[in-house]
Amino acid sequence: MLEKPSKFLLIDSRTIIAPASASGRGGISVIRMSGPLSKKIAKEMCGELAEPWRFKKCNITSNNSSLIDVGMVVFFKSPYSYTGEDIVEFHCHGNPMIVNLIIENALVLGAVVAEPGEFTKKAFLNDKIDLAQAESVADLINAQSESAIIAANSSLSGNFSKQVNDILDELTEARVFVEANIDFPDEDIDRAHMENLNERLIKLLGVVSGLLTSVQDGMKLREGYSVAIVGPPNAGKSTLLNLLARERVAITSDIEGTTRDLVRVPVNIAGLVIEFIDTAGIREDPENSIEEEGISKSKEVINKSNITLVVQDSTSVKPFNVELGESIVVMNKSDLMKESQPNDKNAFYVSSVSGEGMTELLGELIKRLEVDEGGETVFLSRKRHEECLIKGRDFIDESLEGLRQDLGLELIAESLKESHNALGEILRPMSSDDLLGEIFSEFCIGK
Ligand SMILES: Nc1nc2c(ncn2[C@@H]2O[C@H](COP(=O)(O)OP(=O)(O)O)[C@@H](O)[C@H]2O)c(=O)[nH]1
Ligand SMILES: [Mg+2]
Questions:
Q1: Does ligand 1 come within 6 angstroms of the Cβ of 259?
Q2: What's the burial of 362, exposed, middle or buried (CB within 10 Å: 0-12/13-18/19+)?
């Protein structure tokens, strides 16, 4: 028998409250309260509320009836609210003291301070959103580029979840067929049906693998890109970094070995956040152990970066025998070049002093880094999603192998069940409190 998917039952009597807007002074601050006591507490502080989902201008008073603020108050009636519970929002003047007074009064009347991410956790537990969507709420708040915002919104609106759900539906159908035939002897099972199962599983394997690729792109977009700047000493790596950062973040000089520590600068280019990492120059015979350490750090950075810019002084190219992954050769100091000097067709000639050639270099960089920007398949994703998809894919593969080797339907049913469980975990983990704790603890308070 197929087991029913596990479903959380939310028995939560906590009425939680927290500021929903960032702390500090501003035009307006928003405080959010969710739970069974929300309406009652709000009435005690503000008098009669307007009908649900309508703002009402209210006197917000403390428990000894003194006026804290005149603000707008709105009631979201369960189940049509973010958390699925009764929610009240106070929109008050943007003063942290006012925010604190409103919260303190609500606490006296029975509310408790919300934990980080608790509103979204309630939304998840009440089935308003699945776990991948809940994760995308945090990603949207933390997004640092337009691409990341678009991708987080894509996940939040359920594009990623829908693809996972479609795979789960397909797996359910396959499982129903397999389980229904388990008790029949082999010769009674329609061969055409078995072939059809085989074809469907091959197709499904392709779909899961495709989604895995999108997820891996989404992980890169979420984590941001990093580009290592390496090359021989004095090639102008730090000068190039300063030009990219539009400020003097790294010390430059014509003394070799000036840069020893890594200098990291996030730069927003064409809607992507790219962290450039300037490194110590690498040469064959470092003069002392400090420099040696800088060089070994550079090698580590090369391994962790998405792409490496290998910077050379175009007027005096030095040997640079370091193992590189994806890389672009940058011939720097083009302003000092004499016309007769040979042109390396595969390199990008720039001047970190005048900025000449930078547009072409950055164009190439973006082209090489680019994921499917703005495409509908882009969503922000995490290692967790990747792990579930890999597991799910491998179990489908195992079931296909079972079919090939005629291992019997019990084993195939078991593989399909494992695949279903692994992929289901993306949207709704079976029972892992630790996982939920880990995911929601990275949220800010009030979300
Ligand atoms: N003319 C010219 N000088 C440059 C250029 N880039 C760097 N330099 C100079 O080359 C020297 C070494 O630069 P630096 O950035 O410290 O090199 P690094 O060791 O690779 O980090 C400094 O004196 C810079 O002013 C460039 O594009 N044109
Ligand atoms: Mg340097």
A1: yes
A2: middle
